[in-house]
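User: Some background: our group keeps a shared notebook of sequences we're curious about, and every so often someone picks one and asks for a predicted structure to add to the entry. Today it's my turn. The entry only has the sequence so far, pasted here. Could you supply the structure so I can complete it?
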Amino acid sequence: MYRLICFLSLFLLLSQPLYAAHLAERVHEEHFENGLTLLMLERHDAPTVSAFISFRVGGANEGAQNRGIAHLLEHMLFKGTKTLGTKDYVAEKPLLDQIEIVGSRIDLLKNTSVIDQKEIEVLRARLKDLQQEHKQYVVKDEFSRIYSENGGVGYNAFTSKDQTTYLISLPSNKLELWASIESDRLQNAVLREFYTEREVVREERRRSYESNPSGLLYEALISNAYTVHPYRNPVIGWDSDIANLSLEEARDFFSRYYRPVNMVITLVGDFKSEEALALVKKYFSKIPAGTPVPQVVDVEPPQRGEKRIMINFDAEPNVSIAFHKPAMPHLDDYCADLLMNILAGSPTSRLYKRLVVEEQLASNVEIYGAPGSRYNNLFVVEATPRHPHTVAEVEAAIYEELNKLKSEPVSSTELKRARNRLVTDNLRQMRSNNGLARLLSSYAVIGSWQYLTDYAEKIEAIDPPKLIAFANRYLTATNRTVAILQREVEK
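Assistant: Of course. Here's the predicted structure to add to the notebook entry:
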């Protein structure tokens, strides 16, 4: 069994350069007059297609007046259109208008200097009655039902700092159904149940961040590591942001940016490119281009000293340490990938072996890149001390290992293992239609899908001196932000 595993790993590694070159030849890229980018890759192993629609808009593209709007829109775009998700849109529309009038009035009054609580209570009762009346027209989860009845799986969406993506895998002969539904959603979306969903998102925030120790620590780390760049703001928004997002703002943001000029459609699976292209032209080419998402011009200034924050919470202690670094396609981003793997990519990696296995200072250690990929981001080390050891002991051990990287060259064996793991992990993701579509889509949104094809080549070009240079340039005390979760000390 061991020999078989080794053989398969070797085969994957040897085939990576060939596969990457083959991939570059097989991806069919089309650009439409309205700005839409279409990526297609035929795979005829099984009669299915993975379809991704990604928009180059996310949390980093929001301002002080609309933080959290992209994430809220992710929720709202599951609510249906003028024909889907409603029993009678003509009868429903007047109710939707009344709900918006009352909801907007409540939002206005609750932020005035002198709050008329009595009027607000009357309006809230009126809003509740209107929402109850509106329920008679709503067909819940109709998108999901239609896809499921037609063999679709994995219907979902996600919003990040850099993008918003809607995805589904479905039988090949249902590709036109997908094109019909998704083009209808772009052109005729109805943001019904807005005020109800806004409260759902506020509850999601409370559950995932405010009452969740790992979410609380992560949010504190990111918001303190950045001073200027919008990466500092949570994708979900701060609670006061969510509570004040308006239906008008949501519609405006959607109509401007969720349009072909900012959109990448990725299809991977069992179809003929000519036929798929014709379908996409039929359903998406007439949609107005929209407004290009403005580039983020805020540049995070160099950090000139350690930032340290303590979070009191009734949970196991934890420490997260973040170092600023460049993002892809800068060569240092590939150096970061290798060092993350060398330090914590496997049970035999440096930090994991020392902290978890040998000295048992920590119950786990993790290293990852955050919070986005389009702009300069962070190299994050996170660990949970194992009782009776302390955060201070774990933190000191982490710095010892990081400092070794600044003067001691990584051995050729260790470097080769890290390269192999990274390349093999990439290949594993590319085995499935969904995994490959996800990678192509994500790379296309942040820069170029061709980043995927030359990844192994870039990794191979990194040698020990480049890793030493990276460690000395970025893994420094003045460039780090430390967030510590500790149990609140009784006074």
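Suggested note for the entry: The domain at 307-486 is CATH 3.30.830.10 (Cytochrome Bc1 Complex; Chain A, domain 1). The radius of gyration is 25 Å.
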